[in-house]
Amino acid sequence: MQATVGDRVLIHGRAVGMAERTGEVVELRGHADDPLLVVRFDDGHEAIISPGTDCEILHVS
Question: pLDDT at residue 32 above 80?
Answer without folding.
Answer: no
